[in-house]
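[job 0417] fold request received: Lipoprotein
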Amino acid sequence: MQNFKMRNLSIYLLLILTILSCKESEVDGIEIGQDLYIGQSLEQNNKLTELITQTLNKNSNALSELTEFWCGGGAGCYDLGTVLSDIVYKMNETEFIKLASKLETERKNSLKGLLDVGLEYGYEPGRKIEIEFPKLNRILTE
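[job 0417] inference complete; emitting structure tokens
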């Protein structure tokens, strides 16, 4: 009986590790923070990685979806903000503005909030959207 239980436990652990190993924790050099990554299902992770890729490929609809992506609240949303900040750094502010300027006001507000917490949480203290991305900040607060 004990061998049976150990065998079942081993199978469950193997399945869990297999599922976790299918998830992506990085997309094109952009790291998905642990709090966001761990809280995701495989399906959510696939969606997030696709939205990151599409946004980097200058798809404004993907950026719009990314601003409303379920992040689980708390630290997971800080991680999503860091992902968005990393996208701005990678694309450059001017290119990102072209995408962000197409967003509806509500999505611009969400993006600004995520960038605010992402810059504060994901980097050394003191980074602010007004300093890091001043032109983008103006677009998001119009």
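[job 0417] notes: The chain has a mean pLDDT of 89. The chain has nine helices and two strands.
[job 0417] exit 0
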